[in-house]
């Protein structure tokens, strides 16, 4: 028993040793592998009866567009959604969507540097598949909390969970979030920064395109907007980010009580090949044809006993 | 884009002006409302005066994340303490809890705080807890990046036993002076007055603040455009 205890670090909490090692390596000249960042425009807006969230759909890896239509509006609870800017892996991991679990990364003990694993993981997978290394993913925590309390989740609950998670990683989990939702106490909109600080605002923008989007909001926002006016304004702010920021692009996603994926597609693919993409039968030469009917291999029995418990 | 995106990744900090003064019968806490990430103003209307209990408030400056976490912890401890004690917590207890967290985590925290409140034993009290976790009980104290411009001002203007009105006017004047000179302070002025009757929040929008030397009247300001019926059409 004592041997097992020895391999666990004496104090709780995240061990930042490998983060220091990474910084030292960069200083010595190691080129850090670029990870998938959502150079982004994400916005949120409170209108008369609720909250509208908007996001662009471009995921970049350095100068390359890795995903032209990624999803940046993440589910937290049926009534709470969260837009994420920053490292795609981090925003996904912290909001709780696992699209792929890397088995060999999971085998690395959690005590080894989380940031190294994210680095490594993001380098391997160029799409925003995520390794769930930490056990507290906020949307899962919210679901458990809902079971425990028997009530709908509140936005401040999600806010506190996200802020504590990000603070404990001292800014190394590079996720900047716009959290919005409607609960029994009303509509709420919050921004959460990678270091764990939060702001509560009537309208907010984050990401590399935040300045462009904020310019639109500052000139056109007013209190008591209707739902349609709000959605139009949000779409305009995201478009401003898409067209004026290099890190944002492609389409506009909106959430307002329901997720309107690709609400607007201002960047359609305009080139269509004249030849088309269908290939005539004569294109490839057929060398051998063998057809095996499967019906002869399978025995179909009709009737028989009904299933019994 | 790199310069700007680098700035947007900078830690969220409140280059601030925060003030706490005692007057005859209570305290007045005041703060500006600008939160910056590097050179970008992340929130131009933030609330830096946070409630710890009904009768004790705290002004936050420095790293936004650190100061929010410290005040959350202290609010939690004070809540427990109030339940155990059976009566409202004193300002001294609140300030010492803040000090313990600030001092014991001095290597990791970067936040200067001012705790102010009113209790029935000591009346109105102000405690300054700067970086490092010193605790200083003072008749008035200032903090944040904008406070550098106010030391001389307070030396001249401060007097004991002011009335509530005088104290509030003093705080608003001081914050607006600091806003005029400090780039990292701005927005609106928020004050909280705490006395035996409880705590009262006041809000002074930017246009209501006096202009100082070389500051110009707002012309074609966004506030005028927004309050106008419709924007002027563009004429080519």
Automatic annotation (TrEMBL), chain A:
Q: What is its subcellular localisation?
A: Cytoplasm; Nucleus
What name does this protein carry? Proteasome subunit beta
Q: How does it assemble?
A: Component of the proteasome complex.
The family line of this record is: Belongs to the peptidase T1B family.
Where are the membrane-spanning stretches? Answer: 97-119
Which keywords does UniProt give here?
Cytoplasm, Hydrolase, Membrane, Nucleus, Protease, Proteasome, Threonine protease, Transmembrane, Transmembrane helix
Record organism: Rehmannia glutinosa (Chinese foxglove)
The record describes the protein's role as:
Component of the proteasome, a multicatalytic proteinase complex which is characterized by its ability to cleave peptides with Arg, Phe, Tyr, Leu, and Glu adjacent to the leaving group at neutral or slightly basic pH. The proteasome has an ATP-dependent proteolytic activity.
Q: Which reaction is recorded as catalysed by this protein? A: Cleavage of peptide bonds with very broad specificity
Family matches, as PANTHER family: METALLOPROTEASE TLDD, PROTEASOME SUBUNIT BETA TYPE-7
> Pfam families per the record?
Proteasome
Automatic annotation (TrEMBL), chain B:
Q: Which reaction does it catalyse?
A: Cleavage of peptide bonds with very broad specificity
Q: What InterPro entries does the record point to?
A: Ntn_hydrolases_N, Pept_T1A_subB, Proteasome_bsu_CS, Proteasome_sua/b, Proteasome_suB-type
Q: The organism sits in which domain of life? A: Eukaryota
Which locations, inside or outside the cell, does it occupy?
Cytoplasm; Nucleus
Give the residue range of the signal peptide: none
- Report keywords, A-Z: Cytoplasm, Hydrolase, Nucleus, Protease, Proteasome, Threonine protease
Would you identify the family this protein belongs to, as annotated? Belongs to the peptidase T1B family.
Q: What does this protein do?
A: The proteasome is a multicatalytic proteinase complex which is characterized by its ability to cleave peptides with Arg, Phe, Tyr, Leu, and Glu adjacent to the leaving group at neutral or slightly basic pH. The proteasome has an ATP-dependent proteolytic activity.
User: Which PANTHER family does UniProt cross-reference here?
Assistant: ATP-DEPENDENT PROTEASE SUBUNIT HSLV, METALLOPROTEASE TLDD
Q: How does it assemble?
A: Component of the proteasome complex.
Q: What is this protein called?
A: Proteasome subunit beta
Q: Which organism does this sequence originate in? A: Rehmannia glutinosa (Chinese foxglove)
